[in-house]
């Protein structure tokens, strides 16, 4: 491509919305990017409300599951538990929505796996947390990144799959501290925390 050509991304006209929460009983607050340029509605950490009848039902189910050997127990889990809207993942997705075609329901972008924080997931009876952790910017951070054993795929994922600036991706230790606070407050509960590490950490050896 000739260097004198200028490439522009024309902004769309569709109002992107604010990733509004639907059918979730919690204290709604704003989660904004560091520069305050884009915000989303999220549940304040630890504010999700679970009705008493549902709490009892979930506790009964957990007790039944734990009567089995661990390898046979059915433990409620979430995939990429810490890739949450509550921590800013997907916040910038709404900017991409300005250019999607509303007539095409498949035309969308979703870079978070979860909406609720780790604390709220635990309140809702999740007992297996999977946390993606990678080493970049001189620390262990939670995010969609790392080697995919393909240069093309890795470059594509680095550009698209987080919906949050790299410098704003949360530290993994903060997610672990969040889980520990809840576990300390609920000492009779059993929680599995699995760290899903990438090839970038293996290279540190």
UniProtKB/TrEMBL annotation:
Give GO cellular component annotations, separated by semicolons.
Answer: membrane
Q: Name one GO molecular function term.
A: phosphoric diester hydrolase activity
Keywords assigned by UniProt? Membrane, Transmembrane, Transmembrane helix
Major location category of this protein: membrane
One GO BP annotation here? Answer: lipid metabolic process
List localization entries: Membrane
- Tell me if Lipid biosynthesis is a UniProt keyword of this record: no
Tell me if Membrane is a UniProt keyword of this record: yes
* PANTHER family reported in the protein's UniProt record: MAINTENANCE OF TELOMERE CAPPING PROTEIN 6, MAINTENANCE OF TELOMOERE CAPPING
Question: Which protein, by its recorded name, is this?
Answer: Peptidase A2 domain-containing protein
Native organism: Bremia lactucae
């Amino acid at each position: 491509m000739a260097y004198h050509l200028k490439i522009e991304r024309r902004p769309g006209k569709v109002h992107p919305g604010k990733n509004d929460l639907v059918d979730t009983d919690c204290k709604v607050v704003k989660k904004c990017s560091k520069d305050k340029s884009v915000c989303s509605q999220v549940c304040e950490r630890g504010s999700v409300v679970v009705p008493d009848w549902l709490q009892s039902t979930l506790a009964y189910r957990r007790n039944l599951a734990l009567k089995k050997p661990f390898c046979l127990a059915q433990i409620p889990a979430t995939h990429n538990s810490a890739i949450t809207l509550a921590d800013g993942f997907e916040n910038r997705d709404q900017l991409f929505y300005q250019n999607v075609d509303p007539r095409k329901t498949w035309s969308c972008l979703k870079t978070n796996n979860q909406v609720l924080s780790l604390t709220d997931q635990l309140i809702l009876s999740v007992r297996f947390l999977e946390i993606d952790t990678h080493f970049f910017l001189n620390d262990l951070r939670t995010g969609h990144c790392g080697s995919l054993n393909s240069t093309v795929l890795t470059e594509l994922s680095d550009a698209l799959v987080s919906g949050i600036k790299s410098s704003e991706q949360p530290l993994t230790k903060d997610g672990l501290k969040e889980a520990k606070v809840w576990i300390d407050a609920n000492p009779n509960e059993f929680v599995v925390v699995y760290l899903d590490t990438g090839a970038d950490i293996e290279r540190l050896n």
